[in-house]
Amino acid sequence: DELPTPPTIVDSPALSAGDIVRDLRGPITSMVAAVGLLSPESTADERRRQLDSLQAYGRQLSTALTDLVDFEQLLRGTVDLAEDAYDLSQLLHNCVDELAPTLADRGLQVRLAVSPTLPRWLLGDPSRVRQLITRLLQLASQPANFGTLDVSASADDFLHIVVMHQDATMPDDRQSLGFVFCAQLALVLGGELRLQPSSGGGF
Q1: Is the pLDDT of residue 192 over 60?
Q2: Is the terminal CB of the chain with fewer CB neighbours within 10 Å at N or C?
């Protein structure tokens, strides 16, 4: 069954050129620093850790660039949303299963709880919903390389999906490219993104 579309309460936050530069500068600076640590004197384990760090920073940069391109399309209204029936519970399980190994390498556990109130079938764009959930998991995992990420889904008059980091403090970073992109994507999908910047906080 299709749930009613929730009302739009606020517009997505503004994003300045400075915010974009800051988000791109972080992983680039980290990549440069990681390259600088590579040396012929490094042990095999040290080189492996440094290369792993380079890959992680490269993924962060790739994600930021993808968010930037998609964000522009969302603002322009050039994103065509699909109208397909999809199993939301299965989609959530797939998102968690896909990210769990990478997060486990960082010392993070992911738990998923799906309420019996959640309808099995929804009508919408499953690829964009998957993109949103995956990106929220990535954002929630950033404050610390330890602890537990909890993902829950329930429904009353509206659909509620919550992503929380139980063991770290979420920064109040509403101007980050990742948050602004997710807020705009949620808006386009007919929903709203709320940030809880606190210990055990999340989205």
Answers
A1: yes
A2: N
Q: What confidence score (pLDDT) does residue 20 get? A: 64
Q: Which residues contact 98 (CB under 8 A, 6 or more apart)?
A: 134
**Residue 95, CA atoms < 13 Å, CB-side half-sphere:** 29
User: What's the first-to-final CA gap in the chain, in angstroms?
Assistant: 25
Residue with tokens 């807020």, as numbered in its chain: 183
Return the bridge partners of 124, or none. 84
Strands 108-114 and 84-87: unpaired
C-alpha–C-alpha distance, residues 96 and 81, integer Å:
23
SS3 of the chain: helix, strand, coil, percent, to 5: 50, 15, 35
Question: What gap in Å lies between CA 158 and CA 170, rounded to an integer?
Answer: 25
pLDDT tens for residues 109-155? 999 999 999 998 999 999 899 989 988 988 888 877 788 999 999 99
Q: Please state the pTM of the whole predicted model.
A: 0.73
Distances (CA, A) of 186 to 12, 42, 129: 9, 45, 8
- Cβ atoms of 134 and 116 within 8 Å: the answer is no
pLDDT at 3: 45
Residue with tokens 């330890």: 146
